[in-house]
Design a protein that fits this description.
Layout: E1 5-9, E2 13-18, E3 25-32, E4 39-43, E5 51-52, E6 59-61, E7 67-69, E8 75-77, H1 80-89, E9 94-98, H2 111-120, E10 122-128, E11 130-134, E12 138-142, E13 145-150, E14 156-163, E15 171-177, H3 184-187, E16 192-194, H4 198-203, E17 216-219, E18 222-223, H5 234-247, E19 253-261, H6 265-275, E20 282-287, E21 302-304
Parallel strand pairs: 4-9, 11-19, 14-19, 16-17
Antiparallel strand pairs: 1-10, 2-3, 3-9, 4-5, 6-7, 7-8, 11-20, 12-13, 13-19, 14-15, 17-18, 20-21
Helix pairs in contact: 1-2, 1-5, 5-6
Length: 306
């Protein structure tokens, strides 16, 4: 299977679960789609104006999860785990139908989405992929939080750090290459929260579907879940999963190098908005060859479509 051609799923996918914040049961189905159509979300519980495109321009909320909305105010939320699975597995085109606003949380990771996509199979096309190549460094800082993106030759690197006063989480840092590394630990890492924050979520009307089956709950220096941590860096690895999903709201694969400390959905979306604010910051390219160029500086492999 060529990594340089656009892909979709081979068979339809169906999954059922609960929205972690709404507590509403939701059916989600994924259908194959033609090249150059991208990822599309469709609310089947609504008859009109029910298509929502996962694009950074359509992000309306970022606290705790990523929410997108169309011009009619129709929303789809908590899309980052599914989008992270699409990004890591190279799914360029798909239609996602769901009968509620919030995507199912499943076990709090992208594990089940990834398994279902692999079981369904991935179908190649004859259409070449498009990539966004970062040309200028962008850096944002908010207090002790920062995120930056700069040039890279042929990869998307994510270097992510979290810092918690909690004695179990503490400081964790990990760096991955999205296009070359084995990403199982990223896909399998679950969302998490501190026990003392649960009451705050409830007061805000959130976390109605949350449980020890779909989130790690940290209390003091231990977790309350029966299942142990899935990997030594599960907390920061989940943040990397979120970051991957949010970056896919660029619409294409990104070639660049990201460094982030204590960031989240909001900071990643601000980075995308700043990156695309000026066309000098990036190039939108189509790969014409049959093998990955050693460097995206080699123009013989590329066609500018910006």
């Amino acid at each position: 299977m060529s990594i340089l051609s656009q892909k979709t799923i081979s068979k339809n996918i169906s999954v059922k679960g609960v929205g972690v914040h709404t507590g509403v049961e939701v059916n989600l189905e994924i259908f194959s789609s033609e090249p150059n159509t991208g990822i599309i979300f469709k609310r089947t519980d609504l008859k009109n104006n029910n298509v929502v495109i996962p694009n950074f321009k359509n992000v309306t909320d970022t606290p705790l999860c990523t929410t997108i909305s169309n011009e009619y105010g129709v929303k789809v939320s908590n899309i980052e785990h599914l989008m992270g699975a699409f990004y890591g597995l190279g799914i360029d085109n798909a239609i996602v139908e769901l009968n509620s606003q919030e995507a199912p949380i499943l076990d709090g990771s992208a594990k089940e989405f990834v398994e279902l996509i692999k079981q369904a199979g991935i179908r190649d096309s004859n259409s070449p992929i498009k990539i966004i190549k970062v040309e200028n460094q962008i850096k944002l800082q908010e207090g002790n939080k920062y995120i930056s993106i700069k040039k890279s030759n042929v990869s998307l690197d994510i270097d992510f750090e979290i810092k918690y006063e909690n004695s179990l989480i503490k400081t964790q840092r990990n760096k991955i290459n999205v296009f070359e590394d084995k990403l199982d630990d990223i896909y399998n890492s679950r969302t998490f929260c501190l026990f003392e924050d649960i009451s705050k979520l409830k007061k805000l009307g959130l976390g109605k579907g949350g449980s020890l089956e779909n989130a790690i709950v940290v209390k003091g220096n231990s977790i309350m879940n029966n299942e142990n941590l899935r990997n030594d860096l599960e907390f920061v690895n989940h943040k990397i999963l979120d970051c991957m999903g949010d970056l896919y709201l660029s619409g294409y694969r990104i070639v660049g190098s990201i460094e982030c400390s204590q960031g989240g959905h909001g900071l990643t979306h601000k980075l995308l908005r700043e990156l695309f604010r000026d066309k000098k910051n990036y190039s939108l390219l189509e790969i014409k060859g049959k093998s990955l160029p050693h460097s995206f500086a080699d123009k013989s492999y590329l066609k500018s479509i910006a």
